[in-house]
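step 4 of 6: structure.
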Amino acid sequence: MTKKIKPRQSTETRARDAERSQKDILDAAQDEFASHGLGGARMDRIAERAGLNKRLIYYYFDSKEGLFLAVLERTYERIRGEEKALNLSQEEPTEAIRRLISFTWNYYLAHPEFLTLLNSENLHRARHLKKSKKILTMHSPLVQTIADVLDRGRRAGIFRAGVDPVQLYISIAGMAYFYLGNCHTLSTIFDRDLLATKAKVERLSHMTDLVLGYLLRD
Amino acid sequence: MTKKIKPRQSTETRARDAERSQKDILDAAQDEFASHGLGGARMDRIAERAGLNKRLIYYYFDSKEGLFLAVLERTYERIRGEEKALNLSQEEPTEAIRRLISFTWNYYLAHPEFLTLLNSENLHRARHLKKSKKILTMHSPLVQTIADVLDRGRRAGIFRAGVDPVQLYISIAGMAYFYLGNCHTLSTIFDRDLLATKAKVERLSHMTDLVLGYLLRD
Amino acid sequence: MTKKIKPRQSTETRARDAERSQKDILDAAQDEFASHGLGGARMDRIAERAGLNKRLIYYYFDSKEGLFLAVLERTYERIRGEEKALNLSQEEPTEAIRRLISFTWNYYLAHPEFLTLLNSENLHRARHLKKSKKILTMHSPLVQTIADVLDRGRRAGIFRAGVDPVQLYISIAGMAYFYLGNCHTLSTIFDRDLLATKAKVERLSHMTDLVLGYLLRD
Amino acid sequence: MTKKIKPRQSTETRARDAERSQKDILDAAQDEFASHGLGGARMDRIAERAGLNKRLIYYYFDSKEGLFLAVLERTYERIRGEEKALNLSQEEPTEAIRRLISFTWNYYLAHPEFLTLLNSENLHRARHLKKSKKILTMHSPLVQTIADVLDRGRRAGIFRAGVDPVQLYISIAGMAYFYLGNCHTLSTIFDRDLLATKAKVERLSHMTDLVLGYLLRD
DNA sequence: TATGAATGAGAATTCATTCAT
DNA sequence: TATGAATGAATTCTCATTCAT
């Protein structure tokens, strides 16, 4: 245990420390929950990773489940935040779909913890999520955007009609999620390294081809 | 509950009891692992669900991990068995794809434990799978079959060329898996009952449309 | 930790061990709860005193509160058992009252743990007792006996009329209970050793004088 | 709750705040100790109930035990104060006894916390009391007064001789204490509401009858 | 084959108390 | 005088596993 070196300036040190401690705990917890799931995570390890006393976790987050929920909320906030920043409405429909797919793919690639946390939460039948008003109202803005893109494409005569944006969103997310979330079993069974650079490139283009092959008329 | 009097006459009878006990344990364990994951599962609960003494689990399966592996193996055996029974090679290509999609969809629907076990195993980076010779040799026969179907379709001039059967298989599985495995969170977030009968019918046809829309030329 | 030497005979050894372990735990728990109260008692100390693994306590009694209740029940069973063995109905009324008082006094003296446990339970507003069907139906047989004795005394013209046996029982118990249960504070405040042999003799005769002085006519 | 703005002008004001804080803490602590005993009391809850920071408790009272002692001292001061205010020496002996009994009864009724604190302190073998010079010199003035009343009664030929005032005091206190302190268990066991108004009236008259029946000659 | 009893290591959580300001 | 942040040492309870029969 190295003694924590106190932060820079002074004035608001205390307040900043509290915030900092909470952030450190959340960071450590996210790692731990992502690598071991809710059941396998250890409060001791979280405290150690955070470089803080275990008691402090309870001081701020009440319980293991409370901490898990806080991590989940932060994770959702982040992805929803990035989704909002995408500006697909300005884009030409085909290009918009391309970017949507590659955003999803790249986000999951960059944030493997999101997949594992989602997995854990689903194992528990969304028990924590259902308690969180915060998350429940955070509808993915992508669905709205997809609806708009599909509409523009259809009116331009390039996309087929009658596509449900929710179904499409789930399909795109599912294709990326299953590949990346289950890459260990899949790699083993198919005896292929699914995380090799080439494999990843191929996957993204397969997904794009699949979706556009379906959407585009002719 | 009729009181089970233990028959002790013949070796055969004794053997049948042993088999029965092991099956009871595996059934109970499958439920438990599927509902709580490997970390959250409790040996006590498994013994109780199986109606057998905890010690017996160790007698037959050595350890919790051993038991988990046994459950995993049985689960894989079952799905691989059913996959073999599908006789897609006899089928006309378009119809074969249709049946493949609906088989996957219905199997996941009927066996939600398969999704959760896969989930758990991936959390552990396929650690158990890699140790199992049994599973490793059970490469999904579907991939071979899909390759064949795609090939026949391409040669008949109805399917597009250059489709990787593994990619396609993962896409189909992923579209079903994500929808069903995350239905709790998705239902809440989209404010739609994804498990309503109508919703399920729509999902299956969306998946079929998407894949065939991509595969079929013209 | 000396290794526990296994009990004498054989045949029913296992069954006897379980019973023995439970008894050892209850004995240890009674000591611990009596000396420290429910809040101050330590499960670790109980296990150590019992010479058994802490886990076993939970195996048999579920929780600290469950153990406390079990101790309470056994304690009540014991005093109610001894009360039943008193045969006051055969006795001449005055003598019966004398023996009742001295029984109460001597029981409390011999079982200080009864006082402390009662105290603890009352601190918790009889929370555990109320959950115990066992204790709730164990009405003190003394009240019935007192009613009978009072009645015989009254009809014989030696006791005053209109004495409520419950009130009398509570008074007798209270006089003994308060003296013995609070002897530490009382001894300190009055600067008298209330537990000196002479003091105890005097207390019993005071109590007897008080009650008989009230009951006897003339 | 009006927001308390801290006055910082004069020393006097500051001092008054300090007194107020200490009182708030003692009030909260009395509640907490009375409801949970020393072992079960929680410093956090006391701070919360007092609406003050936990650290302040340590500033004023040093430790949990120090706080307990302070509560104990205040409680004793109060009852001793009220006892002094009774003016039994002016009273005719029979009436004095009556008033003594009813004072004791009513004080315990109005101050149930006194019973519980006594209870806790005895569990700890009067450890705190013995350390408190304050309490040690506060001998109950009642004993002296009782001695005087008994003496006057005896000389007037109405009371019996040879009654020890300490014994009598303990008996009176005990009759009230046991009834009120154990009313939860007793009510349940005897299936009578011992706190019903009528029951309380009856108890007081039973106690008075018992004591006077004993004291009065003829 | 089957089981009730027992355990050591560890898990989450709690608690009185102190630090720093 | 007052407080939010932080902690070490327990404390209750849990868990996979083994013993003894």
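step 5 of 6: annotate
 - Residues 1-16 of chain A have pLDDT under 50 and may be disordered.
 - Chain A has twelve helices and no strands.
step 6 of 6: archive
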